[in-house]
Amino acid sequence: MRTAVYPGSFDPVTNGHLDIIERSAKLVDKLIVAVLNNKSKSPLFTVEERVRHLQIATQDFKNVEIMSFSGLLVDFASKVNSNIIIRGLRGVTDFSYEFQMALTNRSLNSDIETLFVSADTQYLFFSSSQVKEIAHFGGNIDNIVPPVVREEIKKKMKDI
Q: For residue 36, how far is the Cα from the chain centroid?
């Protein structure tokens, strides 16, 4: 069975992330979407909330599983018997960073391969950080995030 890991903070998950998930799930037998628990960041949503958002948003994808992790990605990939890491790319800036990370991961575990999946053109311009900023200032995020996230962002923004 070919298993791939698609890691990220997903704070919040966007329609761009879902596009990468849907397209990547067609390439493998099992896709694990791995939500990073990075204690050095101050996310809008808890890890548990982000996992729940992804579970709801991907419920129709039969070969997708949502998990959280902390620590080194290569260690997590080995733990779940995967030697494939999926990374989404929006542009040249993403590529530079992701290429460096791919080389680092490969130096830590030479069995790991990174596959880059380019974002669909309709999602090239939106990052999770931009979604939070747009929402913070009352902008329309309806076409950028799945419905479950849209409603929860609006609730969180009222509390900020």
A: 9
